[in-house]
Design goal:
Keywords: ATP-binding, Kinase, Membrane, Nucleotide-binding, Phosphoprotein, Transferase, Transmembrane, Transmembrane helix, Two-component regulatory system. By secondary structure, the protein is α+β, with helices and mostly antiparallel strands. The chain has 13 helices and 9 strands. The chain has 3 domains: 190 residues, no CATH class; 88 residues, Single alpha-helices involved in coiled-coils or other helix-helix interfaces, CATH 1.20.5; 121 residues, Heat Shock Protein 90, CATH 3.30.565.10. The strands form 3 sheets. A 5-stranded mixed β-sheet has the order 5-6-7-9-8, with helices on one face. A two-stranded antiparallel sheet has the order 1-2. It has a two-stranded antiparallel sheet with strand order 3-4. α2 packs across α3, α2 packs across α5 and α2 crosses α7. The N and C termini lie far apart (80 Å).
Length: 436
């Protein structure tokens, strides 16, 4: 049985898959969008070559008479144009232009690279090599792009007229009819080969761009570190917003509902609830302003201290105003806790109380804080409300607590303990100098 990629003639089996592959490549280059993007990139290089060519062929001979004679004009003019080309390739604007062309027309082979001014001469030299190569190769391809289609167009009439209108006065004589058909056939093949040349040159320059413009290992590691730092900062700000504003909104929601119900029957109670709403809304605005200041890199806002364990009485008082009975017990000197641990511990307790309001309702809560010499322990315990839902994986609040604890090198546990829900957090207490 003959394989499908082989043909049979009288002499036996003759493989033709290689011929088909060659034609597929040629025709594929003709219809490929990548070919025309690379062609545009190369034509751009040819256009950039024009000023340098004019400098070497026109301007220089007018200033240096020795460069006017044909042999010297080619050597001296070409050398001078190349020197100017290399010199200008170090300009920051040229680096931006080349980087933009690579990014837009060569499928962005170096997405992590940055273009523009740089203090590294190694980076400038690599960019210079790519630009010079782009301009020179682009000049050759641009010249071929002008000549080959023109030759093809002129050759089409040669079998009919017997003249090919190139090569001197009167042109070149060719046989009429089919004997002269070889000329347009060769011109057509040469024009089709131009597509393959463009694809090959574009692929070569793409690999060169990837090699020359890619970031050094040290700079890439530094860039990844900066990204990781920004991501960590964003996560921290997200936790701050979730814990502070989320707690305030939970209190405001409960107190607003209570005020609405008591407005006619208990005006004094409604007034107290509205005062709690006002207080929590004001605190939420202050927290929001602080976080937005960090996002805007507002130095004044970033220097403003965040709430710590010393503000725990105010947090407990606000929760009690929401109608929740809180039994708070503190053992140890909270002022001696390291600032970073104090801030994160306050947010953890705030999130625990918010979760009680959201998921258990107005049930009694016990808060235990023990500040030892080497460890800070936080325990929040409350009965499970009638509408409570036990979540094995935890919500975003519990994930935020776990992230804070992990960053500080501590341990946490949250889950059901009998009929109660309990959160236990243990953090390294540290000293005053361990945080910022």
């Amino acid at each position: 049985m003959t394989p499908p990629n082989q043909a049979v003639d009288s002499g036996g089996t003759l493989p033709i898959c290689e011929d088909r592959t060659m034609w597929r490549r040629v025709l594929g280059s003709v219809v490929s969008r990548t070919t025309y993007r690379r062609w545009t990139y190369l034509i751009l290089g040819g256009a950039l070559l024009v000023p340098y060519a004019l400098f070497g062929a026109v301007l220089l001979p007018s200033v240096v008479p020795q460069a006017a004679s044909p042999p010297a004009a080619f050597v001296i003019g070409g050398t001078a144009a190349l020197v100017v080309l290399v010199a200008t390739s170090f300009l920051p604007a040229v680096r931006v232009l080349e980087g933009t062309a690579v990014r837009e027309l060569l499928a962005d082979p170096v997405p992590d690279a940055t273009f523009g001014g740089t203090t590294s001469w190694a980076v400038r030299a690599r960019s210079s090599v790519l630009f010079v190569g782009h301009v020179l190769v682009g000049g050759v391809v641009s010249l071929a792009s002008l000549l080959l289609p023109s030759v093809l167009a002129l050759s089409l009439t040669a079998p009919f007229t017997g003249k090919f209108p190139l090569g001197g006065e009167g042109g070149i004589s060719v046989p009429r009819g089919w004997p002269g058909a070889w000329l347009p056939a060769v011109s057509l093949l040469a024009t089709l080969s131009l597509f393959g040349i463009v694809n090959g040159a574009g692929a070569l320059l793409t690999r060169a761009a990837k090699s020359l413009l890619s970031l050094p290992v040290a700079e890439r590691i530094a860039q990844l570190k900066r990204r990781a730092d920004r991501l960590a900062q964003r996560n921290r700000l997200a936790r701050e917003l979730h814990d502070s504003v989320g707690h305030a909104l939970s209190v405001v929601s409960l107190q607003a509902g209570a005020a609405r119900r008591m407005l006619r029957t208990d005006p004094a109670g409604a007034q107290q609830a509205l005062l709690a709403v006002e207080d929590r809304a004001r605190a939420a605005l202050a927290d929001l302003d602080s976080v937005l200041g960090l996002l805007r890199e507002d130095e004044a806002a970033s220097r403003s201290p965040s709430a710590g364990l010393e503000e725990l009485p105010a947090l407990v008082s606000a929760t009690r105003l929401a109608g929740v009975a809180v039994d708070c017990e503190v053992d140890g000197d909270l002022a001696a806790v390291a600032p970073v641990v104090s801030r994160e511990s306050y947010r953890i307790l705030q999130e625990c109380l918010t979760n009680v309001l959201r998921h258990a309702g107005k049930v009694p809560v016990s808060v235990r804080v023990r500040a030892g010499e080497s460890e800070l322990e936080l325990i929040v315990r409350n009965p499970m409300g009638a509408g409570s839902v036990t979540r094995s994986g935890g919500g975003s609040g519990l994930r935020g607590i776990a992230e804070r604890v992990e960053l500080l090198g501590g341990h946490s546990r949250a889950g059901r303990d009998g009929d109660d829900w309990e959160v236990v957090v243990r953090l390294p207490g540290g000293g005053r100098g361990t945080g910022a």
